[in-house]
Amino acid sequence: MIAIGSLDIGNGARLRRATPADVDALIEIKRGLPMPRAEQTSEGGFLLGSELETYRALLEVARVWLLEVEHRVVGFAMTLDDPVLRQSPVWARRDAIVWAPSFDVEAALARRITYFDQLGVLPAFRHRYWGAALALRALAEQFDEAGHDLALTTTVIEPIINRAALPYLARVGARELGRVNEHYPGVGSIVSAVHVIEASCYRERTAALVDTGHPATQRIMQATPGP
């Protein structure tokens, strides 16, 4: 279990560690972020997979940060350390990924990898900077504190594009370097883009935020030890 901590990000909001007692809050957020029908106009932000028992298991091994606003949990970020990732169903499906020819897969997989599993913020709270602060805290921890070399994450692109995380990914220099076909019960077949974030690129993109970013971002970066 990862040690509990918290970080005030202003205007009644804070980030804090999740505990096993927060499992119902994660389920509530997931149910508040259903996948829209393909014909609906949407910016995305939906979550797939992971029901109650899966979340309970993940809370024991994953790094999970919660976004609380006025003491209500309205978002969460979940990442997996390298040893946890390599024992997960995600790692078991790695051979199904169609990688870009320019990407040296073997060299990448030999490095220390974190997996950004889920990022979800309820729609009513997306208009603030809080979602970006949540995502940044999760990455800062994995790169600057846990010492991972790169991060992998996926976003759905078929039958509908999940756009919600794309601005965050662009901000930290993520590159789309693969595609994978998957099947989710109750949803069917989907295609996801696989994004890679290099620690060096993340540090280059975020270095200026200590001085020029939003106050919430500055708090996060100043509270994060360097590599």
Q: Which helices and strands, and how do they pair?
A:
Elements: E1 6-10, E2 13-17, H1 23-31, H2 52-61, E3 63-69, E4 72-80, H3 82-85, H4 89-92, E5 98-99, H5 105-109, E6 113-121, H6 130-145, E7 150-158, H7 166-171, E8 175-184, E9 188-198, H8 199-206, H9 209-212, H10 215-222
Parallel strand pairs: 6-7
Antiparallel strand pairs: 1-2, 2-3, 3-4, 4-6, 5-8, 7-9, 8-9
Helix pairs in contact: 1-2, 6-10
Short synopsis of the structure:
The protein is α+β, with helices and mostly antiparallel strands.
Features:
single chain; 227 residues; alpha+beta; Aminopeptidase; 9-stranded mixed beta sheet; 10 helices
Q: What can you tell me about this protein's structure?
A:
This protein has 227 residues and is an alpha+beta fold. It has one domain (6-222): Gcn5-related N-acetyltransferase (GNAT) (Aminopeptidase). 33% of the residues lie in helices and 30% in strands. It has helices at residues 23-31, 52-61, 82-85, 89-92, 105-109, 130-145, 166-171, 199-206, 209-212, 215-222, and strands at 6-10, 13-17, 63-69, 72-80, 98-99, 113-121, 150-158, 175-184, 188-198. A nine-stranded mixed β-sheet has the order 1-2-3-4-6-7-9-8-5, with helices on both faces. A hairpin with a 2-residue loop joins strand 1 (6-10) and strand 2 (13-17). Helix 1 packs across helix 2. The longest helix has 16 residues, at 130-145. The radius of gyration is 17 Å and the shape is globular. The mean pLDDT is 87.
